[in-house]
Specification:
28% strand; alpha+beta; 126 residues; Pnp Oxidase, Chain A
Amino acid sequence: MTTTWTAEELDRIGAADELDVAARRQDGSLRTPTTIWVVRNGDDLYIRSYRGPEGGWYRATKTRHEGHIHAADIDKDVAFVAVPDPDLNTRIDEAYRSKYARFGAQYVDPMTAAPARTTTTRIVPR
């Protein structure tokens, strides 16, 4: 099991505007992918649910904490790891604001608001 990203994967996925995420069901099959935003902080990649804890893809990650992502022509099985660190969440907010500023406050503000912040998830290759 690989637990770190390669430099190329980090660069390509971190630069991608969107990422497709599919959580793994209890029986091991993958759910239908959902397209979401992804940000990079250091050597890690993070995702959040725009709809907060009620987001369907986010709720689905709680079943097995694993799934699959596709971005920038990279396909990878991943684990979903919760991020309880408030200081890290602040850096993730900044990454969302910086990377997605061109989409405007109507999209970026919800990604940095309390409901979405509670869903900050680190994606780790498996």
